[in-house]
């Protein structure tokens, strides 16, 4: 069974999308290959898949042979045709995909600032300025003993290598299980774990061992060969994966040698981390809140070091090459992550300049932080709830740190996409309950499963559709699959005992979709009562994201407890312009009079019916649009946690002016 398609995954199969593609492929018994330009590789190997260098808009063929070949091909084709495959949420500023738009990498050089201060030029990898004490991190390079094995030692050495790989994987699993790991960092660590067990690496190592190399030398040789393959690809992002392979190889070698990596736990508050290279796994589990900045000899704007730094707001300058040696004995370091400048032991003039810049940035952040605990209101005293859009429990901390007044959109599809089987009722109930407890007494709005043919989910077979965005998705799919939908509704009823759960239906275009859902909710409640399972009712609302929902908003408002306007999809459907298609990007503008009119009509209908009207699309966090939305009658705005404090400031300023 084989089928060809055009890849729509944003920026192609880079690390995280490749990792999830492999995970999906491994869920099928069939042998599966991906073919591009006549070259076929196993779809169950992350390394081989990334080396195939599949880009967005390229044609590929999925080929499968086995008992479930048809299902495998359909699921994998669906993944490849999904522009957002591999991304956890609507705005992953710290993800691999966001890194693709990074500025061109500059060659490291020694130069001087405009005032004559000597500086090193590297790659501007994460914006921001920092000044602090240098923390040198230069672990000794690992060298293989170069010992030739005797024939009787080979099997034992292979087994020793396999145990080392298992140990590294177990350590990474423990890291993945930590609650303080962000969703972005989690994806990076998961990609590294896949490399550690990938047949391309393990197979080559075992081949070298059987040819007589000791395990450490074999790991170094195999990792170097694979890293060289990544470096040879004409793609900055894939070149950066060479660093990941070296980092994984180093971890395996350390286990084989019975050594521990030099810890970063002792880094002082505000220190600048200086390293020739540092593994993404090491950085992800370091005390990131204490790190003032990062400077590395290796790495670039698309490396996982840069991605982690950006996602945590840590200024970083990478790719200094041999110039990093000038920082080995530095006492203090100043870095400019915007321009890629590094100053070693800056003089008083440079110190004063950086101190001013750091203070200005800190004041701006502090000026917004005061709004963390602010409850913004309109001039008449009406509270405007500023909530967070999140897709996993790992994102709770960031939302709370920003001052989120609850959750305006919890995307449940990630819970389904993370597993190779449909999540059980108990698993869902635990997740929704944890979410409710974390934000109590603030409301938590949970969107029911919003997937279609563009988002492959193990356990759900989707038809082949010409345009899955207009097809069997969202509430349409759920109502046709009550076996799946009722499991989620039962879990939500169980979580509602905490009192702050609300439920929102996606892709609604008919009133009957609401009434049919309500009937299922009542059926589920009756079942739970008969079983003696604690449960409670919840407010039922709808996302307004189709033109049909806007036009029937007055009637819909009589059937539900709230509206939440999803501007991302509403804009593309109103303008008939795919929001992921760059050729029609100028049409995909929420400020277009047609879209703003649709938002106003929705708000008017909701206000007239006396129900809450909110917004959970990206436009909700735009300071230039918030005043207009508030004037229309919206009383809830949900957005990325990074936008919350600025939104609160905007609303407070409106009230003060009136």
Automatic annotation (TrEMBL):
GO MF annotation list: kinase activity; metal ion binding; phosphoenolpyruvate-protein phosphotransferase activity
Keywords: Cytoplasm, Kinase, Magnesium, Metal-binding, Phosphotransferase system, Pyruvate, Sugar transport, Transferase, Transport
Broad class of where this protein is predominantly found: cytoplasm
EC numbers for this chain: 2.7.3.9
Biological processes, Gene Ontology terms: phosphoenolpyruvate-dependent sugar phosphotransferase system
Catalysed reactions, semicolon-separated: L-histidyl-[protein] + phosphoenolpyruvate = N(pros)-phospho-L-histidyl-[protein] + pyruvate
Binding positions (phosphoenolpyruvate): 411, 447, 568-569, 579
Function: General (non sugar-specific) component of the phosphoenolpyruvate-dependent sugar phosphotransferase system (sugar PTS). This major carbohydrate active-transport system catalyzes the phosphorylation of incoming sugar substrates concomitantly with their translocation across the cell membrane. Enzyme I transfers the phosphoryl group from phosphoenolpyruvate (PEP) to the phosphoryl carrier protein (HPr).
EC class name: transferase
A matching Pfam family: PEP-utilisers_N
Compartments where located: Cytoplasm
Positions that bind Mg(2+): 545, 569
UniProt lineage: Bacteria, Pseudomonadati, Pseudomonadota, Alphaproteobacteria, Hyphomicrobiales
Active site, renumbered: 304 (tele-phosphohistidine intermediate), 616 (proton donor)
Keyword Metal-binding: yes
Family: Belongs to the PEP-utilizing enzyme family.
Designated name of the protein: Phosphoenolpyruvate-protein phosphotransferase
Encoding gene per record: ptsP
Cross-referenced InterPro entries: HPr-like (IPR000032), HPr-like_sf (IPR035895), PEP-util_enz_mobile_dom (IPR008279), PEP-utilizing_PTS_enzyme (IPR050499), PEP_util_C (IPR000121), Phosphohistidine_dom_sf (IPR036637), PTS_EI (IPR024692), PTS_EI-like (IPR006318)
Required co-factors: Mg(2+)
Domain annotation HPr: ranges: 1-88
GO cellular component: a single term: cytoplasm
Keyword Transferase annotated: yes
UniProt-listed PANTHER family: PHOSPHOENOLPYRUVATE-PROTEIN PHOSPHOTRANSFERASE (PTHR46244)
């Amino acid at each position: 069974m084989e089928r060809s398609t055009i890849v729509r995954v944003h920026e192609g199969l880079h690390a995280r999308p490749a990792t999830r593609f492999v995970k999906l492929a491994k869920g099928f018994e069939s042998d599966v290959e991906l073919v591009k330009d006549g070259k076929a590789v196993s779809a169950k190997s992350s390394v081989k898949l990334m080396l195939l260098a599949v880009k967005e808009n390229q044609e590929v063929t999925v080929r499968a042979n086995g008992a479930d070949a048809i299902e495998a091909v359909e699921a994998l084709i669906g993944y490849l045709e999904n522009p957002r495959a591999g991304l956890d949420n609507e705005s992953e500023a710290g993800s691999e995909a966001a890194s693709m738009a990074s500025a061109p990498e500059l060659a490291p050089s020694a130069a001087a600032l405009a005032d004559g201060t000597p500086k090193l030029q590297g790659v501007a990898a994460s914006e921001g300025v920092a000044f602090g004490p240098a923390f040198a991190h230069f672990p000794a390079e690992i060298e293989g003993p170069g010992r030739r094995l005797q024939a009787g030692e080979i099997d034992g050495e292979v087994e020793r290598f396999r145990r080392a790989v298992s140990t590294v994987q177990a350590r990474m699993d423990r890291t993945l299980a930590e609650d303080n790991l962000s969703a972005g960092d989690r994806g990076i660590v998961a990609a590294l774990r896949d490399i550690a067990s990938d047949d391309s690496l393990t197979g080559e190592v075992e081949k070298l061992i059987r040819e007589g190399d000791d395990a450490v030398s074999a790991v170094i040789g195999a990792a170097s060969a694979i890293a060289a393959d990544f470096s040879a690809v004409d793609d900055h992002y894939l070149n950066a994966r060479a660093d990941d392979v070296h980092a994984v190889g180093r971890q395996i070698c350390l286990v084989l040698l019975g050594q521990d990596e030099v810890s970063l736990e002792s880094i002082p508050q505000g220190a600048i981390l200086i390293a020739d290279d540092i593994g993404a796994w090491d950085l992800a589990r370091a005390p990131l809140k204490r790190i003032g900045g990062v400077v590395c000899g290796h790495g670039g704007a698309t490396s996982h070091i840069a991605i982690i730094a950006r996602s945590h707001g840590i200024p970083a300058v990478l790719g200094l090459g041999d110039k990093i040696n000038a920082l080995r004995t530095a006492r203090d370091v100043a870095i400019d992550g915007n321009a890629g400048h590094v100053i070693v032991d800056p003089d008083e003039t440079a110190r004063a300049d950086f101190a001013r810049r750091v203070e200005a940035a800190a004041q701006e952040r502090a000026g917004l932080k005061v709004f963390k605990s602010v409850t913004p209101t309109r001039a008449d005293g009406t509270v405007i709830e500023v909530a967070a859009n999140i897709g996993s429990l790992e994102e709770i901390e960031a939302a709370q740190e920003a001052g989120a007044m609850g959750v305006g959109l919890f995307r449940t599809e990630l819970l389904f996409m993370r597993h190779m089987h449909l999540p059980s009722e108990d698993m869902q109930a635990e997740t929704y309950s944890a979410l409710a407890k974390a934000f109590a007494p603030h409301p938590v709005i949970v969107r029911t499963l919003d997937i279609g043919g563009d988002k492959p989910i193990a356990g759900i077979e989707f038809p082949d559709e010409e345009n899955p965005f207009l097809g069997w998705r969202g509430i349409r799919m759920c109502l046709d699959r009550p076996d799946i939908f009722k499991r989620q509704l039962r879990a939500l009823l169980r979580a509602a005992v905490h009192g702050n759960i609300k439920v929102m239906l996606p892709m609604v275009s008919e009133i009957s979709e609401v009434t049919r859902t309500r009937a299922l909710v009542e059926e589920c409640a009756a079942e739970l009562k008969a079983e003696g399972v604690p449960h409670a009712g919840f407010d039922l609302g709808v996302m307004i994201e189709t033109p049909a929902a806007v036009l029937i908003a007055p009637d819909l408002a009589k059937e539900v407890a709230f509206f939440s306007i999803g501007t991302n999809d509403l804009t593309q459907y109103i303008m008939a312009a795919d929001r992921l298609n760059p050729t029609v990007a100028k049409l995909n503008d929420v400020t277009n009079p047609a879209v703003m009119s649709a938002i106003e009509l929705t708000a008017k209908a909701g206000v007239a019916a006396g129900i809450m009207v909110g917004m959970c699309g990206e436009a909700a966090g735009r300071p230039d649009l918030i005043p207009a939305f508030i004037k229309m009658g919206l009383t809830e705005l949900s957005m990325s946690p990074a936008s919350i404090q600025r939104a609160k400031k905007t609303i407070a300023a409106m009230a003060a002016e009136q």
